[in-house]
Write a structure and sequence with these properties.
With 147 residues, the protein is an alpha+beta fold. It has a single domain, classed as Ribbon (Umud Fragment, subunit A). Helices cover 16% and strands 24% of the residues. The chain is built from 1 helix and 6 strands. A 6-stranded antiparallel sheet has the order 1-2-6-3-4-5.
Length: 147
Amino acid sequence: MRGKFQQIVLPSIISILLLSLIIHAAGTWPIIYLVKSGSMEPTVIPGDVIIVKSTDPNDLDPGSIIVFDVPGSEESPYVHRIVRWVNKGEPMWSLGPPAPYSGFITKGDNNKYFDQASVESIGPVEKDWVKGEVEFVIRMSLQPPTS
């Protein structure tokens, strides 16, 4: 175990700290998360560490991977990809229901359905739910704690 710690974990922790210092020196403080879910595999896998940069939601485009909270959800925060922006009343996907309000349509890369089409629909992601955009993924062999 000690050899694995010295070869993998310690350099990874040092890399995260150095990367955080570089980003901080650039004028922002990153948010760091340990990924628990496989919903974004193979792009992001459980045990990966992601560095999230605070970003203006107006600057986000389809394809961006974002971290967002859903008010009242026990599953928050989510780490998913933006598929598109919808305005209130537009179909959320082809032949889908109209959006109850404007927001981002999102989906995990490894999920079959849009977040908004799942059994526990969250509705379009509102701009003020967005915590930031994933800037870096650090592949680590850490396993998140189970609840």
